[in-house]
Design goal:
alpha/beta; five-stranded parallel β-sheet; disordered N terminus
């Protein structure tokens, strides 16, 4: 059993000197607050809004100096037509209570409305802004109405004045137009769901060319079902154009923004979708008369042209016969010319053939093959004579080089003195120094020597 039910409130006299548990004190405070502040109105700014999965809403109401914790249980939150947001200034009705597990007092709300702004109007603006961001109201996605529909769907209440106005206008403008009525409630709880279902049913069935969705005038609460998101999305998803005709000309709903065409009244919607049959028939008669006149004129012109062509055909036939005779003469002359030309060409071909045979490469090769052995023998003789001459000249050059070779000089008893280790040739005695190691190259072998004395005079 809870503390609240097991503990009876005590008077001030009974509390004096009595020791209470925390739960008992909390229950006393709660009972006192709930009995004294059971029905109050409060205004403040929402902050720290939380919306857990339970559906309850928790937030804080504050002003410039103070704040209080607030809870709006799921039953009350589900009845809100607008969304609570941080920073929103609201007026609320509820009762003051205590949340016993934490010993904190809080305000339990039953009703909330935006301060200075109607709840319906705020809900309208919030939903309009959100759907507009998704592009559901973009003009680019709207379709033109069919110019000559054969079947029109009407989604409205079958007992309303709007259906009578629509049917009257449709029958007056186009009596042969087929009308399919989808009866739905147009206000109250659940009306939006049924309107959206009717739109989807007509769209999927593809049994109408265009549909009218709407009702007559009423209060904002009466028209609210046409502001529901489910209706807006059904209109946008429709596969056929939708005309919105809700209320009077001054009434605007979200269905008007989503529809392909917004009519100010149900009667205007009927006028927008239905052409005037009499105007169409008069126009067809007028077009038929014009077509008949044009056909008759074209036939007269064609008949005159045909007569002219027949006259021209007679002249043309005579010219064809005359030109045919001339063609026979030309063909005969051309045949004779070609025959003579072919004969001359055949004679020239024989002459060229005999000339080519006399100059046949095979004959030239055979003649050359007979002369080739003689030419080869003459070439061998010339090559042998040339080689003997080259050998003599080479022997003379070798003898001359031997006479000029340093090795021949060394062979006559001379030597070459080189510095050690760089191997430079000493051409005069002054280039050496006493004690320097030099190398004497002989005709056969080498001698390493040390300079003991340098004489700069003539050799003796």
């Amino acid at each position: 059993m809870s503390t609240r039910s097991s503990f009876s409130p005590l008077s001030d006299g009974e509390l004096s000197g009595r020791i209470l548990t925390v739960s008992q004190l909390t229950a006393l405070v709660r009972d006192s607050l709930e009995s004294r502040f059971s029905d109050l109105w409060i205004e403040g700014e929402i902050s720290n809004l939380r919306a857990p999965a339970s559906g309850h809403l928790y937030f804080t109401l504050k002003d410039d100096a103070s704040q209080i914790r607030v809870v709006l249980f799921r039953s009350g939150a589900s009845r809100l037509r607008f969304h609570l947001d941080d920073g929103l200034l609201v007026v609320a009705r509820g009762r003051l209570s205590v949340y016993e597990p934490r010993g904190e007092y809080q305000l339990v709300l039953e009703y909330v409305e935006p301060k200075g702004f109607g709840a319906l109007q705020l809900a309208f603006e919030q939903l309009k802004e959100r759907l507009a961001r998704e592009g559901l109201f973009d003009q680019s996605r709207k379709r033109p109405l069919p110019p000559f529909p054969s079947r029109v769907g009407v989604i409205t209440s079958p007992s309303s004045a709007a259906i009578r106005d629509i049917l009257s206008v449709l029958h007056r403008r186009c009596p042969i137009l087929h009308v399919i009525i989808a009866p739905v409630p147009v206000q109250g709880e659940g009306a939006a769901i049924q309107i959206a279902d009717a739109i989807r049913s007509l769209s999927e069935a593809r049994i109408v060319d265009v549909m009218i969705v709407g009702r007559g005038g009423g209060s904002p609460e009466d028209l609210w079902c046409f502001n529901e998101e489910v209706v807006v999305r059904a209109i946008v998803a429709s596969k056929v154009p939708v005309v919105s005709a809700v209320g009077h000309e001054i009434d605007y709903t979200l269905a008007d923004f989503a529809a392909d065409y917004r009519a100010p009244t149900p009667s205007a919607a009927a006028e927008a979708v239905a052409p005037v049959l009499s105007d169409l028939t008069n126009r067809l008669v007028e077009l038929g008369d014009r077509a008949s006149r044009i056909v008759r004129q074209e036939m007269a012109v064609s008949r005159n042209h045909l007569d002219w062509m027949v006259d021209r055909l007679t002249v043309f036939q005579w010219r064809v016969q005359h030109e045919g005779q001339r063609l026979d003469d030309v063909v005969e002359a051309l045949t004779r010319h070609l025959r003579d030309r072919v004969g001359r060409l055949r004679h020239r071909l024989l002459v060229v053939r005999y000339g080519l045979l006399s100059r046949s490469p095979l004959l030239v090769v055979r003649r050359a093959a007979a002369v080739a052995p003689q030419l080869l023998r003459r070439l061998e003789q010339q090559i042998c004579a040339g080689l003997a001459e080259k050998r003599q000249r080479l022997a003379a050059k070798v003898a001359s080089l031997d006479s000029l070779s340093p090795l021949a000089v060394l062979g006559r008893g001379y030597s070459i003195i080189l510095t050690v280790p760089d191997g430079k040739v000493l051409r005069q005695a002054s280039d050496a120094r006493v004690g320097q190691l030099v190398r004497a190259r002989l005709a056969v072998g080498q001698l390493d020597c040390v300079v003991k004395q340098i004489r700069s005079g003539p050799f003796s």
